[in-house]
Amino acid sequence: MVTISAFQVAQRFVGTHEIAGAMSNPLIVAMLRLDTSWPDSDDVAWCSAFVNFVCWLLRLPRSKSLRARSWLMVGIPIGIDDARADSDIVILKRGAGQQPGPDVIAAPGHVCFYAGHDDESISVLAGNQSNAVNVARFPRTQILSVRRL
User: Fold this and answer.
1) 3-state SS class at 107
2) How many angstroms separate the Cα of 9 from the Cα of each of 39, 44, 114, 129?
3) What is the pTM of this model?
4) 6-148 has which CATH code?
5) What spatial distance separates the first Cα and last Cα of the chain, rounded to whole Å?
6) Is-contact 14 125, C-beta < 8 A?
7) Average pLDDT per 10 consecutive residues for the chain, totaling 149 residues
C-alpha cells in the first residue's frame, strides 16, 4: 500500500496563487468555502483554508476554521526538534509588535506544514505566503506551537 503524507500533498499545490484584480482563483475560493460560506474571493487570509483542505483530502484532523490559531487546538504539541516533514504543522505569530502567546486564539497567526529548521529559522510550506503556496523561512521566535496531527 502506498502512503502519501500531508506534506507531499501540499507540495502538489506549490505555485497556486491568488489572481490580482476582480478575478479570484477558483481553487483558493473552494478551499476557503470548505468549512464556511462567507469568502467570495481569494483576497482574504487563506493559510488555514489551505491546511484544512490538505487535511480534508487525507482525512486528517482539521480545525474547520479560517483562523490560523485555531490549529493550536488540533493534534498534540511536540518540540521543534521532534518535528517531521510529513504531517506536522506549525503555528506562527503574525503581525508587528508584541503578539499574544499560544493561549490566545483570537489573534493574528499563520499555519503551515513543517519543512525543516536550523538554529535560527524554520522553513514551512503554506498557502498565502506572498499570495501563493510556497516554502518560506521565518525566525524561530515566531513559533507558537508545532503540532502532530
Assistant:
1) coil
2) 24, 23, 13, 17
3) 0.96
4) 3.90.1720.10
5) 21
6) yes
7) 91 97 96 92 96 98 98 98 95 87 93 98 98 98 97
Q: Which residue has the cell 518540540?
A: 79
Whole-angstrom Cα distance, residue 147 to residue 15?
25
Q: How many CB atoms neighbour CB 35 within 10 A?
A: 16
20 burial type by CB count under 10 A (0-12 exposed, 13-18 middle, 19+ buried): exposed
Cell numbers found for residue 90: 506549525
User: Residue 30 corresponds to which cell in the numbers above?
Assistant: 473552494
What helix, strand, coil percent values describe the chain, rounded to 5? Answer: 25, 30, 50
Place of cell 538554529: 119
Placement of cell 498557502 in the chain: 127
The widest CA-to-CA distance across the chain, in whole angstroms, is 48
136 forms beta bridges with 124
Angle at 8 between CA 132 and CA 54, to 5 degrees: 60
> Which amino acid makes up residue 43?
D
